[in-house]
Specification:
Shape: globular
Distance between the termini: 14 Å
Number of helices: 3
Order of helices and strands: EHEEHHE
Largest sheet: 4 strands, antiparallel
Oligomer: single chain
Strand order of the largest sheet: 2-3-1-4
Radius of gyration: 14 Å
Length: about 100
């Protein structure tokens, strides 16, 4: 796959206390509604770790790295995603990771 045209996944790591879990879900739904129709965004999921109920992640699928980068560098990015910013997992070196899709079935 060509690195400039292959699909990418973005994993945003979140951390919340048990009583904050509903706020994480609410913020996720609000952001997802705002992102509907974003060019290049194929979809996203809110994930909760089974063995650690305070650990969440948002996994988003993008048609290409350039599509993600265009959205990320745009003026609306920071404002749209701000409701989840306070829950970013600060124990990690980076609160998110980019993955290129290397193979699918």
């Amino acid at each position: 796959m060509d690195g400039t045209t292959s699909r990418v996944r973005v994993m945003l790591y979140l951390r919340a206390s048990e009583d904050q879990a509903p706020a994480v879900a609410e913020a996720y739904h609000r952001i997802s509604a705002d992102l509907a129709g974003t060019p290049g965004l194929l979809g996203n999921e809110l994930l909760r770790e089974v063995s650690d109920p305070g650990a969440f992640a948002v996994l988003s699928a993008w048609e290409s790295l350039p599509a993600f980068q265009a959205w990320e560098s745009g003026s609306a990015h920071r404002g749209t995603t701000s409701p989840l910013r306070e829950y970013q997992d600060s124990s990690r070196a980076r609160p998110f990771a980019l993955f290129e899709v290397a193979a699918t079935y």
